[in-house]
Structure formats: C-alpha cells, structure tokens
Amino acid sequence: MYFEGIEKNQTRLWIINSLLELLERKEYHDITIHMIVDHAGLGRRTFYRYFKTKDDAMEYITRLLMDQFASAVIRNNSHGTQEVAVAYFQFWEQYIDILLLLKKAHLLYFIEDNLTELIVQVAKKVKHIPENFPAEKLAKLYEKHHYEFSIKLAGFWKATIIWCEETPRKTPEEMAKIITALLT
C-alpha cells in the first residue's frame, strides 16, 4: 500500500491505493471508477462520498504528497534552501515509487499544473508564509517576482524528474548541494 499510515480515513486510503495499484498495470484513461472500487472491495456510492471523479482522487493524492512534504520540512526543522532541499529529496526518496509511477503513467501534470499553489500550501503549513498572510499581498509578491519564482520552481521540479530516473540516484544531500549552488 502506498499511503499506509498516512491517510487516516481507511476508506479513502483503499480508494487511492486501489487507483495507484491499477496504474501499475493499466493506462490511466482505461481505469474506470468501477475498476477502482471493485479492486478496493467497495461500492460505487462509497467512491462518490469522497471523490467526484478519478481526477479528483489523483488531485487528492498530490495534495496528500505535498502535505507529507510539509511534514518532512517541519520534522527536520528545515529553514534554509539547503535544509529544505535535503528534506525535499529525502521526501521524494521515500515516495520514489509514486513519483516513478506518475511519471510512467504521464500523470505528473497533476502536480505540475498546480505546483505554485501546492508550494504555497506547503510554505504556509511550515510557516515560511504566515497562515493569515493576506491573499492580495501574496498576489502582489507573486506578480513582482513571478518570473524568478517560476524559473526556480520549474528548475527544481525538472531536476527532480531527472534525478528520479538516474541509476544510481544521487543522495538527497548531493542534490541539495547542486540545487543550493544553482539557486544562490
């Protein structure tokens, strides 16, 4: 199981793990909600209590992953670029099977399309951005620095994708040094 011990709701855990397990052997577009619930041993109504579509389930998986990344940053008490980068690559090392599965299934867009929003949520959870930071102030900061932010974020993400495919993979500490050197 992919999210054992992380997702507290057992039924939701069965649904998302079922979807990921089906992705191991089927194309995403071929997976139906019927297949997901059948594989999980649940009824269709149960699926719809938690998700409207299988895309909603995939989006939930990405939010769950980013929440786990935020928890790793908090757990490691990471503040600087180097510390956050180490926590980030340690996190993906722990979830490498999911990252590789999403890549193989051409589903990384569930993360990529929402990367800015997901990173802001992480930054708020780890208190790098105050939870009550005004949205309009955040929008102005983003507008002012959106090219810099986008380039750094896209570069970090692309480095992650290259790294996950390497054999052998560099250690999280080695990747953190590379990323820190590039970003500073």
Summed up, what is this model?
The chain has ten helices and no strands. By secondary structure, it is mainly alpha-helical.
Structural account:
- With 184 residues, this protein is mostly helical.
- The chain is 72% helix and 0% strand.
- The chain has 10 helices and no strands.
- The protein has helices at residues 10-23, 33-40, 44-50, 54-75, 81-94, 96-104, 109-112, 115-125, 135-165, 172-183.
- The chain is globular.
- The termini are far apart.
Number of strand elements: 0
Number of helices: 10
Q: What oligomeric state do these chains adopt?
A: single chain
Low-confidence stretches are: none
Kindly state the mean pLDDT as a whole number? Answer: 90
Distance between the terminal alpha carbons, to the nearest Å? Answer: 38 Å
Q: Which percent range fits the helix content?
A: over 70%
Largest sheet: none
CA-based shape: globular
- The portion of residues forming beta strands comes to under 5%
Provide the succession of SSEs.
Answer: HHHHHHHHHH
Please state the structural category: mainly alpha
